From TrEMBL:
Keyword rRNA-binding assigned: no
Protein name: PGG domain-containing protein
Domain of life of the native organism: Eukaryota
Domain PGG residue range list: 265-364
Keyword Ribosomal protein carried by entry: no
Membrane-crossing residue ranges in chain numbering: 265-286, 306-328, 349-367, 373-395, 429-462
Keywords annotated in UniProt: Membrane, Transmembrane, Transmembrane helix
Positions of region (Disordered): 213-258
InterPro entries: Ankyrin_rpt, Ankyrin_rpt-contain_sf, PGG_dom
Organism: Setaria italica (Foxtail millet)
Length: 467
C-alpha cells in the first residue's frame, strides 16, 4: 500500500478494457458476483501497480500482460472499475475494488476526475468514506505525498471533490469532508475560487454553514474565503443577497428586461389570437366535383394556409409560455435563461408562419382567375418582410465557411450539437437549440421553404386555374 497511489492507469493505444461481465456487475452493484470474479482471476500483480501512457509517452514501467476484464482495465472514455462503482454509489464494490487495486484511487479519467470526484458528484457519503480510508492507509504506509495529491486533485474544470460536492449541494459528502479532511476547504480552483466562495456565490446557505462549522473539539474551520479577482466569500454573499438594494444600473437593466419580456408576451399573444381566429373562418373552397383527376380535394393554398396557421399558433403559444416562465423570479436563473432563449427562437418562426398564413389566406379569397395579378402581388409583398425584417436570414451566407468546417470536423453531429447520446428528451432539445444548425440555418431554411411554397402556389394558379 505504501506506493499504491503513485501508479496511474494506462490510457494509450494498448490500454486494457473492462470485460462485459465486469461492467455489468459494477453498474448493477452485484457484490456477490464481483467477489466470484475476483476469486477466479486472482490478483493481477503483487504490488497492484499500473503504468500510465499519455500521448504515447510512458511514465512508468509497462505492466505484465493481464487478461482483458481485470480490475485494471478502463472503459472507452477512460473510466476504471473504481469510477463505475463510485459514480453509482456502490460502497461495497468500491471497497472490494480499492482493496484489490489500491492504485485506482489516484487515477483520472478523460475529464481529470478522480474516483473521489465521482463519489462527491453522486453524493455518496459511504463511497467517499471508503476512498478517504484508502488514502489514509496509503499515507500511513509511507505514501503521504501521493495521498495528499489525490485528496487535493483538481479536474479539468479546476475543481476539487469538495468543490463538486458544494456546487451540486451534496450535503452528506460535504459533512464527511469537513469531518475527515477539513484541509480541503483551503484548496482553491485554478482561478482562485474556494469552496466557501462557491457556496456563497450559489446562494447555498446550508453549504456555507457546513463549511464554517467548527470541528468536534472546537477547532475553527480552516475554510478559505478566497474568490475571483481578489474578492472574498463576503463579497459574493453581499452581491447575491436578496436584501441588497440594486444599483441604478442594475435597476435600469432589470426594468429593460421586464419591458422586453412584456412586449414579447404581448406580441406572441397577438399572433396566437389572430391564428386561432383565422382557423375558424378559413376562406376558399375545394376543387369542383367535375374535375376529373382531383374532384373534391382541397386546393394547395388551403392546405398551406392550414399548415402555416397551425404552426404560427403553436409557436406563439409555446413562446408565450416560455416568456411567462422566463419572467418568474421563483424559477432558477439558469432555467429562466433557457426559457428566454427558446422564446426568442420561437417568436420569429411564429411571425414568419403568420405572414405565410396571411398570403395563403388572400390567395383563397382571390381564387378567381381574374385576380392572378393580385395573387402574385400578395405573395411578392409578403416575401419582402421575410427577407428584410429578419436579419438571421442572411447570416448563413457569412458563416458558410464555418458551417463547412463544422461539417468536416464533426459531421452532422456537430451541426446539431449532439456529440453524445442525450440523457433525456429535454437534454436533446437543449443541445439542439444551442446548435449551429438551429441558431443560424433554421430561419433561412424556413424562409426558403415558404418562398418555394409561394412559387408553387403562383405557378399552379397560372398553369392550373381550376386547381
Amino acid at each position: 500500500m505504501s506506493e499504491s497511489l503513485v501508479a496511474p492507469v494506462e490510457f494509450g493505444p494498448e490500454q486494457m478494457t473492462l470485460g462485459t461481465e465486469l461492467l455489468r456487475v459494477l453498474t448493477t452493484g452485484d457484490a456477490a458476483r464481483l467477489k466470484e470474479l475476483l476469486r477466479s482471476e486472482g490478483r493481477p500483480r503483487a504490488d497492484g501497480h499500473v503504468a500510465i501512457e499519455v500521448n504515447g509517452a510512458s511514465t512508468g514501467a509497462a505492466p505484465s500482460p493481464v487478461r482483458t476484464g481485470c480490475l485494471l482495465g478502463v472503459t472507452s472514455n477512460g473510466n476504471t472499475a473504481l469510477y463505475l462503482a463510485a459514480s453509482r454509489g456502490h460502497a461495497e464494490l468500491a471497497a472490494l475494488v480499492g482493496e484489490r487495486a489500491p492504485s485506482l484511487v489516484a487515477t483520472r479519467n478523460g475529464g481529470l476526475d478522480t474516483p473521489l470526484h465521482c463519489a462527491a458528484k453522486a453524493g455518496s457519503r459511504d463511497v467517499a468514506a471508503c476512498l478517504l480510508s484508502l488514502m489514509r492507509a496509503a499515507a500511513a504506509g509511507g505514501a503521504e505525498e501521493a495521498a495528499v495529491a489525490a485528496l487535493r486533485a483538481r479536474n479539468r474544470l479546476g475543481a476539487t471533490a469538495l468543490h463538486e460536492a458544494v456546487r451540486l449541494g451534496r450535503a452528506a459528502a460535504v459533512e464527511l469532508f469537513m469531518a475527515e479532511a477539513p484541509e480541503m476547504t483551503s484548496v482553491t480552483t485554478d482561478v482562485g475560487v474556494s469552496p466557501l466562495y462557491l457556496a456563497a456565490e450559489t446562494r447555498s446557505e446550508q453549504m456555507v454553514r457546513q463549511l464554517l462549522r467548527p470541528s468536534a473539539d472546537g477547532t475553527p474551520s480552516p475554510a478559505s474565503a478566497a474568490g475571483r479577482h481578489g474578492r472574498t466569500a463576503l463579497h459574493a454573499a453581499a452581491t447575491v443577497s436578496k436584501d441588497r438594494t440594486p444599483t441604478t444600473e442594475e435597476a435600469a437593466a432589470s426594468d429593460e428586461e421586464h419591458d422586453m419580456l412584456r412586449n414579447g408576451a404581448i406580441g406572441s399573444v397577438l399572433i396566437a389570437t389572430v391564428a386561432f381566429a383565422a382557423a375558424f373562418i378559413v376562406p376558399g373552397g375545394f376543387v369542383a366535383d367535375d374535375h376529373r383527376s382531383a374532384a373534391g380535394t382541397a386546393i394547395l393554398a388551403r392546405r398551406a394556409f392550414v399548415a402555416s396557421d397551425t404552426m404560427a399558433f403553436l409557436c406563439s403559444i409555446v413562446a408565450t409560455s416560455f416568456l411567462i416562465y422566463g419572467g418568474a423570479r421563483e424559477n432558477p436563473r439558469s432555467h429562466r435563461l433557457w426559457y428566454k432563449i427558446l422564446a426568442s427562437r420561437l417568436m420569429p418562426m411564429a411571425a414568419r408562419f403568420m405572414i405565410a398564413a396571411f398570403a395563403f389566406g388572400f390567395h383563397l379569397v382571390l381564387v378567381d382567375g381574374a385576380n392572378r395579378g393580385l395573387i402574385v402581388f400578395v405573395y411578392t409583398v409578403s416575401m419582402a418582410p421575410m427577407l428584410f425584417c429578419f436579419p438571421d436570414v442572411w447570416i448563413p451566407l457569412q458563416l458558410l465557411g464555418m458551417a463547412k468546417a463544422v461539417w468536416r470536423r464533426a459531421g452532422w453531429r456537430g451541426l446539431v450539437n449532439v456529440h453524445k447520446r442525450p440523457m433525456s428528451p429535454l437534454h436533446l432539445v437543449q443541445l439542439f437549440v444551442g446548435s449551429f444548425l438551429f441558431q443560424y440555418l433554421v430561419g433561412t431554411l424556413l424562409v426558403v421553404l415558404i418562398a418555394t411554397t409561394f412559387a408553387v402556389a403562383i405557378a399552379l394558379s397560372i398553369r392550373l386555374p381550376n386547381y
